Amino acid sequence: MLKIAYDPIYIHPLPAGHRFPMLKYELIPAQLLYEGLISEESLFSPGELPEEVILWTHEEAYWQQLRDLTLPLKDQRRTGFPLSGQLVDREKRIAQGTIEGCQYAIDNGVAFNVAGGTHHAGTNWGEGFCLLNDQSIAANYLLHNGLASSILIIDLDVHQGNGTAQIFENNASVFTFSMHGANNFPFRKEKSDYDIALPDDNGDEEYLSLLRTILPQLIAQQQPDFIFYLSGVDVLASDKLGKMALSKAACKQRDQFVFEQCIINKIPVQVSMGGGYSPDIKDIVEAHCNTYRVANELYF
């Protein structure tokens, strides 16, 4: 059975102007329930994220500014959100959902967070609608508790995972792989362990060929015992921010290939959904739901 972290707080604290793309957090589980792909038992509401766990990833001074709502206005503008207690609680809940998903993945092969993929948050900054880096927090949780010793983060969002790259730049236990648009946000990029910067209008064939060549090599070289996958659908040709040209079919094939590599190598994988900004919400939801459909076919 698929296990998916979901909580209404994922959307309700957001300012009205940001709610359209975030509607997917409600519509994805609703669609999967409608199809009968999941049941209510598949959805779990994350618990509380301990402050200690946050500080394994983010600097204390930065976290205190978030917690106490004293983050300077210029830094709030960098995040794209006006800071509020509800927003901080939302970010904590998302990160805890990713942590709890890791245990489900260890037991069952795969688990999801309907939100997450907050990969622009670094050790001491928030950026691009990201305040706390959920998969980095979860990776450090696994390492700290001896649940993994070698981790691969596969970031296939159209935007580089700059925060994730910075957090683990000196950590040999975590290998960061980002395949993203060269001419897209963030315009000041960090250095992942392996970056593939793609030109605008990159299409299905070239994208999939690169992924199918590189990912098996990385897994063979790094021998990870846990994988995080950020499955952003802002690579779609319809996406208003992506600058890429992938079809929904290719996006689905991308997900299938990642999951197949995890299964072949017997590596558990936690999936956070990442970005998606197509003007028609149906395109966003359909592409994200394909990720769940493929996982259900392959794992269950």
From TrEMBL:
Family to which the UniProt record says this protein belongs: Belongs to the histone deacetylase family.
A GO MF term: hydrolase activity
Keywords from the UniProt entry: Hydrolase
Entry-linked Gene3D superfamilies: Histone deacetylase domain
Enzyme class label: hydrolase
Pfam families: Hist_deacetyl (PF00850)
Annotated signal sequence range: none
EC number, as in UniProt: 3.5.1.-
Entry protein name: Histone deacetylase-like amidohydrolase
InterPro entries xrefs: HDAC_classIV, HDACs, His_deacetylse_dom, His_deacetylse_dom_sf, Ureohydrolase_dom_sf
Keyword Signal assigned: no
GO annotation (BP), single: epigenetic regulation of gene expression
